[in-house]
UniProtKB/TrEMBL annotation:
The chain crosses the membrane at residues 207-228. It comes from Bowmanella denitrificans. InterPro entries: Surf1/Shy1, Surf1/Surf4. The keyword Cell membrane applies. It is a multi-pass membrane protein. It comes from the Bacteria. This is SURF1-like protein. Belongs to the SURF1 family. It holds the Pfam family SURF1. It is found in: Cell membrane; Membrane. Keywords: Cell membrane, Membrane, Transmembrane, Transmembrane helix.
Amino acid sequence: MLSRLKAIPWMTVGIALLAILLMLRLGFWQLSRAEQKQLRAQQLEQRAANNPLSLQDINRQPGNVADFPVQVSGHLDIGKVFLWDNRVLKGQVGYEVLVPMTTNAGEVLINFGWIKAPPLRTQLPEIDLPTALLTLQGVVVMPGDNLVSREVSESGWPRRVQQPSPEQLAKQLGRDLLPYIVQLNDSQAYGFTNNWHPLVMPAEKHLAYAVQWFGLALACFIITLIALHKQRKKHGNSRAS
C-alpha cells in the first residue's frame, strides 16, 4: 500500500484538482450570469411594453428605473456637449454624443448616439443639434461604473469623457444632473447611429460557455484518472521485473 501511495505523483494530482475546481467555478459563474441575463431580458420585454413615461413618472418609480421607455421635452445645452470616448461600431472607433437637456423635471443627459471619429486624435467631430424646444423618446439607461477607466481632464467643448457617469459629468457642468441617461430611440433623425446594446451577451451564450467549462473539467478529471492508472500500472510492472 505504501509503495502504491509513493507511486502517485501528488504534485500533478494537486495541480489537476486545482484546475478542475477552477473550471467548475467558472462554469457555475457562467450559469449565474446566464440567470442574470434572463432576468434582464424579461425586464426589458416587460418595460418595453409600457407606454413612454414622463421624467416625473420615472423619478417617482421605486428601485431601479433602467429600461423604462420615456418621453422628455426641453431645450438642449448645445454648448456643453460630451463625447463618450472609444466607442466602437462595426470596427470603427468613434464617440457617443451626450448632451444635457433642461426639462421641468430636472436636467438630464441625452445620448444621441454614435458618430465616427475624425482621422486625427487632435480633431473632434462636428456636432449640429437643434436649439428649439424638443420632444424626444428614448429608454432610461443606468450607466455602470468602470473601475479600470481613468477620467482625463479636458478643457473646452465638446469635451471627451471616458465614462458617462452623470455624477462626474455634473461636476464638470457645475450643476445637478438626474442620475441616469436617456438613450434616444431615433438617433438617425439627428445624424447619429444608435449604438445601445442592453444585452451585450445573451443568456444562451453564457449557458454555452458553462457547458464548455464543465466539459473541460470532466475531460481533465478523466485524463487525470487515466494518467494515474498508467502510472500505477507502470510502477507495478517495474516492481515485478
